[in-house]
Structure formats: structure tokens, C-alpha cells
Specification:
The structure is a homotrimer of 256-residue chains. Chain A has two domains: 3-146, S-adenosyl-l-methionine hydroxide adenosyltransferase, N-terminal (Rossmann fold, 3-Layer(aba) Sandwich); 159-255, Elongation Factor Tu (Ef-tu), domain 3 (Beta Barrel), CATH 2.40.30. Chain A contains six helices and 16 strands. Chain A has helices at residues 16-27, 45-55, 96-100, 122-135, 184-191, 239-243; strands spanning 3-8, 32-37, 64-68, 79-84, 87-92, 107-110, 145-146, 159-161, 164-172, 178-183, 196-199, 204-205, 208-209, 220-224, 229-234, 250-255. In chain A, strands 8, 9, 10, 11, 12, 13, 14, 15 and 16 form a nine-stranded mixed beta sheet that branches. In chain A, β1, α1 and β2 (32-37) form a beta-alpha-beta unit. The radius of gyration of chain A is 20 Å and the shape is elongated. Chain A starts with a strand and ends with a strand.
């Protein structure tokens, strides 16, 4: 069995997603195809990287993840296949990989294009094709040619300075919960169990909840999400709208 | 083969749904995973119960239905697995089962949690895990421990009084057709073939159509839907908006 | 393996799509079910035909395509199964097939209905059932009875007149790219390599790009899409809104 996942900004109405699935089933009939998301905000690599980063570790090792966003050949560093954390990723070298992984991947293959390769639908004609080559048992190191490095886009990472952690918001989910780039490891390392104040533009929070239901309905809370990133949420309410939190807004934790 | 269906209010953009699918494929690679709906109105158990009730009987007996809505542990009566009508259902004991079934299930297992079980994503970590335990051939009666009863939320049911049936609207679909809780059995039992008037707030209907196309375009009609519930519809039009029908609004049938 | 695809205007929230999938898995457990789109504009056959036409050729030969739009029995020429280009199509004879194929299919079977067949959900009870009969190895020519012809709806086709081609817009995708019914073959046949002007209501374009990124961001371009139809697009922008292009608006190419 080979699992191929799809992460794109193609939306669900148009024919693009099903065209890719049809092509995969033509080339590799026993593929198990799973949608990660097709509702990535158009052209938004940060959005794509967050969703894929949260989702992919749930899949079995060896899963092939196809990334269909900003796939224009001439504005990227070419098309690549990457092996990282025992998963495979296929997409354009447009900076997505530097947002997706904490450490830059070392196992990189550049997908070689046929002469006069048609470039109007690379997610199907090139990425899905390569995914099937790999799924059929192809050797990672025999596909395409080696590539030294990938395009870097510098993600905002949470940083500590003395007794403070400064981070920013990276994702707002459909419940209007707002996730930051501050993870539990950094929080514990800097905080060492001390009391703290979480400062948002218009609000402060002085504790971290273990469950949404620890607070009354409509109250704001801070919680480490299932991936251990600090999230600002509201029980049965909309934290992002109410507190006017936006992507890239800053969040500060001051330890006492 | 084991089929696992998913009914949630997670939406399709975020990583939550695919995280569950990845986890299922990790624990039980041959699972067939089918989406029932991820666009349940947030926190709305009535909405979830209607959609699942209409959908699940179409699946083969033995199908496992995972219900991912209002899954907070401390606000529910715990996490449960229920066997009813030869189907399995896994979710939080938050009242959904009393809305889902006409008769309360007798076969109930409480899912036992590990000490310090992480409760940030129970639909994945607990429900999907239990679904896979069952799908792998686990015995229903050996999973978790027996549970006597489930939380009751009283659904509004249609009732008859003399020559009248009084019901209410329970669902508005994407065509803006509006489904009531009056079923054909009750209609025939009370009506015994007599003439009748269906009374809505702003409209009356004196017959029940067999097909949408029995009336001219833009005309309101009453029809028993594919599950034999009475539905108010408009051919190629939007009955709910035009007649200003809302969930829980009343509908009365007067027999002569 | 048998692949069954679904193209409907049912949307993704309601139970309709999953009810069909459950029924298919009940009748034919090993079916591979793929969504083409469920977000077809309600009742819009042109929309359905465009999406299915772009998608279906990507699937393996022998794939069965179920079409769930405008399925009322009495307003159609009955329910049919069509074999064309080595694919199977099942739906209502409502004109969709004349929009879907350049040449009208010759291999047509009328699906015979049981007496008192319930017609409230034909996409499930009749189309999915027939798809499974076929998937199980049923012979196309033994299902239902032969049918001579299909309902015609005349699609607007691009036409040439002297040195000009006149077409119209048939689809606007989620990127707000606008596809016309002018294909590359007609363009090359009439143009014979000459210079040209593409005339839109408010804009002219004098070249056809090979890649979206050939023009600066925010500039309008013309490009043959992955199916070789002429598309008006904007790099990282919204061509349809900016140029106020609508479905059925005309587009003219004047060769010099």
C-alpha cells in the first residue's frame, strides 16, 4: 500500500483536485489518496506549511505528500522531492520546505523535466507522476538528480530574551482559535515553573488550561494544542474575532 | 474490510480531519474512511444528529461511525461506544445518541482512559484509536467497560392531538429545502387518507407531491423525503428563505 | 478494481453524498469512490459539464462517472447509461451529455425502472445501483434497454468567420481565471501563425503566454490551459473580477 496525500490551494469546486486523483489512479491503481486540505488560502505558503506540519506526522512513515501551491516553474528553484522524518514531500522549491521543517532537509532530489515538458499543470503532470514513480517502489535516490539546498524563507520563530518569550500568531482555525509559534518546550525551558503573564494586544492571561472546559463559556483561555503550540481560544466562542488577533500579531509571555 | 465514517464540525480547511485519517491509516492501514460531513454547524448536536441519522443506514452493517462534535471530556458523561441497529458509534456522551436514535441504545461501552490521557484531541487520540481496535477485530464487549445509560437530550418529536399533527423543522439543506420531524407513518396513522391542510407561518399546502417536478418552477410543495420525513421544498427555488422557515419553527397538519 | 466518480450539486454539508457512498459500499464493497465535485452551481448543467469534461479523461478507462444534477425523472428523457471514449456515464437524460461531448454518444442504454420505483433520490437508488451492477462485471449491453438518442442542449461553440474567431466564456475557476470555449486547434487552424488581438469587453491582449509567470504580478494574460482551452488569467490576481468577465460573455480573436 502507498498513501499519497494532497495539500493544495485548488479549492474543492474546480476539476483540479479530481484530475490529480484520476491521474494517480491511472498510474498507480492501488494508491490510497487522502486530502489534507484544498482550502489553503490562495498563494499562502505559511498557511499551507502550518496545516501540513500539523497533519503529516499522523500518517504512516513512507507516506508521500504532494504540495500543490505556488507551483510556477520559473518563480521557484525548480521541482523537488524531499525525504524528511521518514516522509516524502513533492512540490516546488518555493520556500515551503523552510517553513515546514525546523531543520532544513538534507535528502533532496531535483525532479528532472523532459524537454518541452508542459508546465500548465505541474501538480498533476510532474508531482503526481513522481509520487507514483516512488509509490511503485522507485528508489528515492534514483529519481531525478541530487540537489544541494532549498530556497529559504525565514519563518518567524518564537524567541526568548531574559525572562520573556516573544512569539507571533501563525494560524487561525475554523473555530477562531489562534495558534502561536510558542511551543511547550520553550515555555518550560524559559519559565522553569514560574508564574507568568501572557500579553496580547488587548488582553492578558495568567494561566494555561489543560482543557477548553476549564473556563466558563465565552471566556478566553490559553492552552497547548495537540501539537504543543500555545493557542488562544474561547470556549464555545470566537477568540480571534473578539480579541482582534491577526496572523503575525505578537504575543509575549513574561515570567516573574 | 472495515469502514470508518467521520461526522464532525471540524470543517475542511484545518488539519484536524486529515490528522484523524492519518492516525487511522497508521493504526489500521486497510481502513476504508468515508466522510459523512465535516461542515456540521459548530457545536450543534441537532445538526450533527440529523445528518448522521439520514446517512448511516446506507452503510453496510458493522460500519463504525466516529462522531467528532462537543468532545470535551468534562462536559460530557465520558466517551462511549454504542452498538445500535448493527452499526457502531463512537463519541462523547453529550446527548447526541438521544437525538440520533428513536430508542435509547442498550449496548453501551464506556471507553476507559489511560492515566494522564491527553485530552486535547480526543476524536483522534481516543475515538479513532477505539475505532481501529474494533476494526481490527476487537470484540465490542471487551473494549472499555459496560455503561448503563446515556445522557438524554429531549428531541422535539412530532405529536398528534385529535385530528392534528404538530411538528417542527429540524434541518435546512443546501437547496434550502426544509425538513420536519413529521414522518409518513404518523401522517398515515392520523390522517387515514383524509384531506388535510399543512399550515406554515405564512403559507398553507393542501397536498403532498410525489416528485419535485409535479408543481411549476418556483412553487412551494410538500413531499416525503427519501427517509420519509415531510419536507417543504420549492422546485428550483429556495423554500426556506422565501417562506422564512427556521429550525424549530412549527408545522401543523389539520385533517378534515 | 472499479472506480466510481461522483459529480453533483449536492454540496458537502448535507447527507446526500455520504448516503450514496454508503449505498455503493453496501452493494459493491471494493469500489474506489472519488469525488469530482459536489459544489456544482445548483441546477447548472453547463457548470457540471465543464468540470466533468476537464476531469474525467484523467481517470483510467472503464471508470464509471455518476452525474447527480437535475435528476427529476419527469423533466428528463429518463435515466441513462452512456459509454463514450471508453468511460461510462450514468445520469438523467437532461441535456448534460450534449454539453459534455463534442460528438453525441452512440452507445446509450436506458435504465429500466421497477414498477413503483421510488423517485425521491435517484442518484442513490438508481444511478449508484446501476453503477454497482456495472462495476460487478455486468455487461453494458445487458443493462436496461437500448436507447436511440439523447436530449440535445446546444452548447455555444467557438466559431471562425474569415480572419476572426468568436467564442464565449464557459467557466470561472476559484482563482478567478476565466476559461473560454476557444481551443488551441481552432486557434492554430484559423491563425496560421499570424499576429492577433484578443478582444474582451474592456481589454485587449496581443500574445498568448506559456506560463503564468511570464507577465508581472497583477497583469492580465491569455494562456492555453491544461486542456488547451484559451483562458484569461492574472498572475496572483483575479482576472474575472477585475475585467468584469461573466459566463457567456464573448471573446473575439482578430488575426491580421
Amino acid at each position: 500500500m502507498a498513501i499519497i496525500t494532497l495539500t493544495t490551494d485548488f479549492g474543492l469546486k474546480d476539476h483540479y483536485v479530481s484530475a490529480i486523483k484520476g491521474a494517480i489512479l491511472t498510474w498507480f491503481p492501488s494508491a490510497v489518496i487522502i486530502d489534507i486540505s484544498h482550502q489553503i488560502e490562495k498563494y499562502n505558503l505559511l498557511d499551507a506549511s502550518f496545516i501540513l506540519k500539523e497533519s503529516y506526522p499522523n500518517f504512516p512513515k513512507g507516506t508521500i505528500h504532494l504540495i500543490g501551491i505556488n507551483t510556477e516553474f520559473s518563480t521557484s528553484g525548480g521541482y523537488v522531492m524531499v525525504k524528511q522524518n521518514d516522509h516524502f514531500f513533492i512540490g516546488a522549491d518555493n520556500g515551503i520546505f523552510s517553513l515546514l521543517f525546523e531543520e532544513m532537509p538534507q535528502k533532496i532530489r531535483e525532479i528532472t523535466l523532459a524537454e518541452n515538458e508542459k508546465l500548465s499543470f505541474p501538480a498533476r503532470d510532474i508531482f503526481a507522476k513522481t509520487a507514483c514513480d516512488l509509490a511503485k517502489g522507485g528508489d528515492f535516490n534514483s529519481i531525478g538528480k541530487p540537489k544541494e539546498s532549498l530556497l529559504q524563507r525565514i519563518p518567524f520563530r518564537a524567541t526568548s530574551m531574559g525572562d520573556n518569550i516573544r512569539g507571533s500568531f501563525v494560524y487561525i482555525d475554523s473555530y477562531d482559535n489562534v495558534t502561536s509559534n510558542i511551543d511547550k518546550r520553550l515555555f518550560e525551558q524559559v519559565g522553569k515553573g514560574r508564574a507568568f503573564i501572557i500579553e496580547l494586544a488587548r488582553h492578558t492571561i495568567e494561566r494555561i488550561s489543560k482543557e477548553y472546559s476549564e473556563v466558563p463559556e465565552g471566556e478566553v483561555l490559553a492552552i497547548f494544542n495537540s501539537s504543543d503550540y500555545l493557542e488562544i481560544a474561547m470556549r464555545n466562542g470566537k477568540a480571534g474575532s473578539l480579541l482582534n488577533l491577526k496572523i503575525n500579531d505578537s504575543i509575549t509571555i513574561r515570567f516573574q
